[in-house]
C-alpha cells in the first residue's frame, strides 16, 4: 500500500511494510515540515503577481527538499501590484501548484505585512468568510476546513485587559507621560483617570481638556456659582470673563458688541422660523453653489434695486419696461435707435422702413423673417404664396416641406425680389426634378427686380413643373 499524507500539514504517512530504506529521509522531511509549521516563517512577495496569488500548501516537500509556503506558521506579505477593481489582492490558499482551492484545510496561520502596496483578501475557496489584511496589520487566522477563513484577532473580547504600554491608533496608553487622545466613546463606571476619582461618592477636583454632557435632562453644576471656572473662565460670576465655547445651547441668546462665529451656521429648523436683519449688510452675498434660489413661488421678493450691471443667464418677466439703454450694444427705446441684427425674429406685425434679410418665408398668418442661411423653406401646409426678398449675391436654395401626397395637385408661387445694388453672381435651385419650358431655367432677377416663379406637382414633390409667370414686376 503506498504512503498517504496528513490532511492539514502534509506529513507523509508510511504504510505498513512500505518505504524500506527510506524511513530516515522521510522522517527528516516530516520533521522539516513540522519545524516550519510550529515555528517557521516565510516572506511572500506579491509584486508582479497581479490581482491574485496562490499560496501553495502541497503535501510532503516541494522538489523533495523544500517546504511549501503554505506549510509555514508565520507568513509575511510584502509588495503587490494594482489589482484593479476592489483594490484588494486575492490570496488563495490552494492544495498544490495546480491552483485547486484547499477548502478542507484546517490550519492556524500568523499573518503580518511589511511594505504592502495593496490590501489582501485571504480565501480557501468560495466560502463567504474571508479575511482582509492591510499594510502594517498582524492577524491570527484559522482555516476551519469548511471553505471558510476566520480572523481570530478582529473581534477580541476579554473580561479585563491590562495595558501597561504601547499605543492605540498611535496614542500612547499607560505611558508615564501620555499624550492627549480622542475617543469616540468611553464608559467609565468607577475607578480613577490620572488619579482623579470618577463616579466616587466624593470625587476629587479634576481638570479636563474637553467636557461634554449629552444625556437628556442632565445637569452640570459649578459650585460655588459665584466663583467657579471652566478652563479658567468664570461661569455664573458677577463679572464673567470672556469665554470660548464649542457648543452653546439656550432658549434666548443676547450678545452686545461684536459677534464672530467660525464654521457652518444653521438658522431655524423650518420655514416657520424667521430671520430679521435690521442692520445694513457690509459684504457680498455669495452662494456656495449655483443651484440656490433667491425667493420661491408664493414667497417672492417685491422690488429689486440694483445700481451697476445685472448679469442674468435667463430672464422671465411678466412685463418689461425698457426706457433706454442698450441690448448687446443696440440702442433700445432711444430717440434715434441704432441698427440691430437678430438671428431669428418672429412677429405678427412688423413696422419698418427697411428690412435687410437673407430670406423671408410665409407662415400661417403673416410673413416670418428667418435671417441666416441662404436656404428658403416653403411650408405647403401654411401657404401657397411665398415672398422671398433679399440682397444676397450668393446661391439660394428653395425647399418645399409638407407637400401633399402623390395624387393631389399642389401649386405655389414665389415672389423673388432682389434689392441688392450689384448683379447676383449666384443661382437659385429648386426642389426635386424641376422641369422648365424648353428645359431652360430663367435668369436671376436683376438689382431692384421682382420675378414671379410658379410651380406645381401632382406626385408628392418628386417632379415639379415650373415657369416664369412674371418678370421685373414693377
Q: What labels describe this entry?
A:
flat; five-stranded mixed sheet; mainly beta; 474 residues; 29 strands; 1 helix; single chain
Describe the structure.
- The structure is a single chain.
- This protein is mainly β and 474 residues long.
- 4% of the residues lie in helices and 27% in strands.
- The protein has 1 helix and 29 strands.
- The protein has a 5-stranded mixed sheet with strand order 3-5-7-10-11.
- It is flat and about 125 Å long.
Largest sheet: 5 strands, mixed
What is the strand content?
A: 25-35%
Major β-sheet strand ordering: 3-5-7-10-11
Rg, Cα atoms, Å:
46 Å
How many beta strands in the DSSP annotation? 29
Number of helices: 1
Detail the topology: elements first, then pairings.
Layout: E1 4-5, E2 12-13, H1 23-39, E3 41-45, E4 52-56, E5 74-79, E6 88-94, E7 106-116, E8 119-123, E9 131-133, E10 138-144, E11 149-151, E12 167-168, E13 171-172, E14 192-193, E15 196-197, E16 229-230, E17 233-234, E18 326-327, E19 330-331, E20 359-362, E21 367-370, E22 375-379, E23 385-390, E24 396-401, E25 410-418, E26 428-429, E27 433-435, E28 449-457, E29 463-470
Amino acid at each position: 500500500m503506498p504512503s498517504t499524507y496528513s490532511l492539514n500539514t502534509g506529513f507523509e504517512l508510511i504504510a505498513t511494510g512500505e518505504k524500506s530504506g527510506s524511513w530516515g529521509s522521510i522522517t527528516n522531511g516530516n520533521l522539516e515540515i513540522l519545524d516550519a509549521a510550529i515555528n517557521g516563517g516565510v516572506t511572500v512577495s506579491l509584486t508582479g503577481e497581479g490581482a491574485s496569488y496562490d499560496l501553495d500548501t502541497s503535501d510532503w516537500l516541494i522538489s523533495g527538499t523544500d517546504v511549501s509556503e503554505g506549510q509555514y506558521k508565520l507568513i509575511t506579505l510584502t509588495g503587490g501590484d494594482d489589482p484593479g477593481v476592489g483594490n484588494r489582492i486575492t490570496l488563495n490558499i490552494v492544495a498544490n501548484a495546480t491552483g485547486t482551492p484547499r477548502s478542507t484545510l484546517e490550519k492556524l496561520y500568523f499573518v503580518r505585512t511589511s511594505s504592502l502596496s495593496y490590501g489582501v483578501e485571504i480565501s480557501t475557496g468560495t466560502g463567504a468568510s474571508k479575511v482582509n489584511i492591510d499594510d502594517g496589520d498582524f492577524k491570527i487566522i484559522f482555516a476551519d476546513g469548511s471553505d471558510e477563513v476566520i480572523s481570530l484577532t478582529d473581534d477580541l473580547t476579554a473580561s479585563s485587559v491590562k495595558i501597561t504600554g504601547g499605543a492605540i491608533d498611535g496614542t500612547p496608553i499607560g505611558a508615564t507621560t501620555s499624550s492627549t487622545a480622542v475617543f469616540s466613546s468611553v464608559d467609565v463606571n468607577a475607578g480613577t483617570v490620572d488619579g482623579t476619582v470618577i463616579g466616587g461618592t466624593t470625587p476629587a477636583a479634576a481638570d479636563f481638556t474637553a467636557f461634554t454632557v449629552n444625556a437628556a435632562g442632565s445637569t452640570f453644576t459649578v459650585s460655588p456659582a459665584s466663583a467657579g471656572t471652566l478652563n479658567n473662565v468664570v461661569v455664573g460670576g458677577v463679572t464673567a470673563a470672556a469665554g470660548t465655547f464649542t457648543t452653546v445651547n439656550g432658549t434666548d441668546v443676547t450678545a452686545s458688541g461684536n459677534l464672530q462665529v467660525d464654521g457652518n451656521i444653521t438658522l431655524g429648523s423650518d420655514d416657520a422660523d424667521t430671520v430679521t436683519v435690521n442692520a445694513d449688510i457690509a459684504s457680498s452675498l455669495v452662494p456656495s453653489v449655483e443651484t440656490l434660489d433667491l425667493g420661491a413661488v408664493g414667497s417672492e421678493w417685491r422690488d429689486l434695486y440694483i445700481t451697476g450691471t445685472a448679469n442674468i443667464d435667463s430672464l422671465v418677466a411678466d412685463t418689461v419696461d425698457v426706457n433706454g439703454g442698450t441690448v448687446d450694444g443696440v440702442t433700445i427705446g432711444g430717440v434715434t435707435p441704432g441698427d440691430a441684427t437678430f438671428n431669428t425674429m418672429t412677429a405678427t406685425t412688423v413696422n419698418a422702413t427697411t428690412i435687410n434679410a437673407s430670406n423671408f418665408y410665409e407662415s400661417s398668418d403673416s410673413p416670418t423673417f428667418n435671417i441666416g442661411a441662404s436656404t428658403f423653406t416653403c411650408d405647403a401646409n401654411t401657404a401657397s404664396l411665398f415672398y422671398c426678398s433679399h440682397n444676397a449675391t450668393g446661391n439660394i436654395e428653395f425647399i418645399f416641406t409638407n407637400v401633399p401626397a402623390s395624387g393631389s395637385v399642389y401649386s405655389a408661387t414665389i415672389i423673388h425680389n432682389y434689392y441688392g445694388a450689384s448683379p447676383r453672381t449666384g443661382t437659385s435651385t429648386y426642389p426635386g426634378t424641376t422641369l422648365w419650358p424648353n428645359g431652360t431655367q430663367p435668369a436671376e432677377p436683376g438689382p431692384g427686380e421682382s420675378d414671379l416663379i410658379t410651380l406645381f406637382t401632382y406626385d408628392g414633390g418628386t417632379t415639379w413643373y415650373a415657369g416664369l409667370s412674371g418678370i421685373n414686376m414693377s
